[in-house]
Amino acid sequence: MSEPQRQLDSQRVSELTRRAELWQRRYKALLEGLDDAVIVYNETGAIVTANAAAESLSGLSHDELITTNIRDLLGPGTLEGTAAREDYTADLELTRRDGSRRSVTIHAKVVSLAEEPLLVQCHIRLVLPKIKAPVSDHAETRFRLMTKNLTEMVLAYDMDRRLTFANPAAETLTGYSLAELEREGFICWVHADDRDRMIQHWDRLFEAHSFYEEEYRLVTKDGRVKWVAASWGPIIDDHGIQVGVQGRERDVTERRMAEETLRQSEHSLRVNEQRYRTLFEESPFPMWEEDFSRVKIYLDTLSSMGAGDLREHFKSHSEDLEECVRRVQILAINRAARDFYGAREKDELLANLAAIFDETAYEVFCEELATLADNQSIFKAEFQTRTLSGEPRTVSMIVSLAPTPNRDWSRVIVSFFDVTDRKRLEEQVLQSQKLESLGRLAGGIAHDFNNLLTVITGYADLLIHGLQLEDPVRRGLSEILNAGTRGAELTQQLLAFSRKQVVQMRPLNLNDVVREAEGMLKRVIGEDVDLAIDLDPSGAMVKGDRGQMHQVLMNLVINGREAMPHGGRLNIETRNLKPYLLLRVSDTGIGMDTETKTRVFEPFFTTKHPAKGTGLGLATVFGIVTQAGGHVSVESEPGIGSAFSVYFPHVAGHAKPEAARVRPLVSKGSGAVLVVEDQPEVRTLTCTIVRNLGYAVLEAVDGAEALVVAERHAGPIRLLISDVIMPGMNGPELAAQLALTQPQMKTIFMSGYTDRIMSEAGEIDTSIAFVQKPFTPDHLGAAVHRVLS
């Protein structure tokens, strides 16, 4: 046994001895407060303890009494009444130390539990002797003097029940004068509820019987109620004839009130304990009730041996922390806690504590003990635990130290709340906020970048058309144009992710989109991957942008191809699932773990080398699908592969063929065209392209200036080419204003993203002419020709 353990055991024995002595002192003090003589004895009759009244009655000291058997005091029949372990009352004779005998009434009460050794608490009351009538005036005078200063009421009645004597205390106790007592008659002060019982006792007085310390309620003249203890007996003359009755009554109201208060307190305690147990068991929140008293003793010992900072001590002495855990006594576990952990009974949970008390639990317990040791009665923590089946759950725990005498930590209530779903929701909200913030950033970057790319690709295209085919500069300009095109594709991904991409939503046959892309997809995945396509012939129509659908398909296929570095099989299928159309792309690649699956749609998240991926592919898919009113999910297992399922809602209608792109006619146009663009470089390029088409160009930096320019222009304006997003008045608002004065004017909008200006879904009405930034001179020229032809 270690020295700390030996010291703790020694302290525990001392503590138990101290508590036993304290209990004996408190019990002895309780006995001393009783008016009756009280003797406590065991089943053999050996006296265990007695109060001072018992010493006075028996003439024996306390030390002499505890070496005496109760049968020597009250006779051999005393133990017969306690053999049945029930309370009983008997009239006996008590033998005093001097050998004299006194008539007494005893009330024996069993005070120990059935499974414990028998202990009997015996109350002994002296029977009031029969009083002889006074033989002379001198004797009566002495009797009156003797009772004058008594605080107890002393009364005497003759056989006709007329009052013959009352001491001054009678008036004090009852409030009636002597004359009133004589006039009111025998026992006029008894409470109505006690009257029948006391009348029976007093009727027997006139038959030469006595009663001792009978308690009842007395009603004073002014209506107050008091409790009194009455002892009465007959008055016998020298000839043995009863000539009256006499008794004494003392006020025991204070004691009875104290007993009633104690009874009510005990009753309230029982009721409150029962209510607490009910609330504890039926609480919807998991709760534990524990006893930390032995833990506190151990911590006090550690402190006395120099362990100051418990947190630091437990870091280097983990065995002491484990000892504290062993010393915790679990008193109760409510139903909610058992259900939370998946245990049917308390014992089932206690038998598997090791399954839930992991390293994290030890860390929390260490902090808990350190907090309680700092005289804090509340400890709070949030941590992850596990059920008996191993399921991880996040809980918010509150440890409450209930107030107890000497602050001995004997009652600790642990309650906790399952916040797993709340934490998941918070993470989803946080992720949504991150996506929204990144979306705003991506949209803003793409907007500015599209304007730059419009200038780069536009001027590169103009310069290429002005050079001979054999001009060496032409090759460099072509590379600039190609780089601008690739940059435009990147901005489209950013805009799709941010859901601010300008789209032309129309009914589409998704099977046709897959067939159109099949040849290109085979080239992308390479020869070491088998491509299997299974299209549902009953596939319904969906609403979407054809370019975006190609983008979704391409990104999912590229993702699957990269998951199969050594080849495999890639499946593309469609299924008609009312009310959705399912597009499913699956692979036989390396698969994903749980953490990767939860982050796979995050922008800029990638498992590839930074030089090989932007992390925008699947984020773009998520943005496009969400913008189209659908949703996407993923199933994956490491080593098995992944399957992405995209659900698009059905729509009515028929697919329309894509309009073929046409180059502008060689013939020159005529008339005025108003160009409105807030970016100077884009405005200058647009005006140059329109002038090259043969039109007279009016230009403005924003909507307000455009209205002024249009008002100053003398002739009609054939065409408005306006950016959608501008400071102040946006493009659609400007077109509506100009239509009031230029009803024949046509309109072409141009933009890199909509920010929900064109429609609530960020869509462009297919009846509206629109040019997507960045654009080339050919794209803009074709749009102008289409609108004005």
Descriptive keywords:
789 residues, alpha+beta, Beta-Lactamase, 6-stranded mixed β-sheet, 5-stranded antiparallel β-sheet, 26 helices, 43% helix, elongated
Write the topology of this structure.
Layout: H1 3-32, E1 37-42, E2 47-50, H2 52-58, H3 62-65, H4 70-74, E3 88-95, E4 101-110, E5 119-126, E6 131-132, H5 137-148, E7 153-158, E8 163-166, H6 168-174, H7 178-184, H8 192-205, E9 211-219, E10 225-236, E11 242-251, H9 253-282, E12 287-291, H10 293-304, H11 310-316, H12 318-327, E13 329-333, H13 335-341, H14 346-350, H15 353-356, H16 359-373, E14 378-386, E15 392-401, E16 412-418, H17 420-465, H18 473-498, E17 506-509, H19 510-525, E18 529-534, E19 541-544, H20 546-562, E20 568-577, E21 580-587, H21 594-599, H22 617-627, E22 631-637, E23 641-649, E24 672-676, H23 680-692, E25 696-700, H24 703-712, E26 717-723, H25 731-738, E27 746-751, E28 769-772, H26 777-788
Parallel strand pairs: 6-10, 18-20, 24-25, 24-26, 26-27, 27-28
Antiparallel strand pairs: 1-2, 1-5, 3-4, 4-5, 7-8, 7-11, 9-10, 10-11, 12-13, 12-16, 14-15, 15-16, 17-19, 20-21, 21-23, 22-23
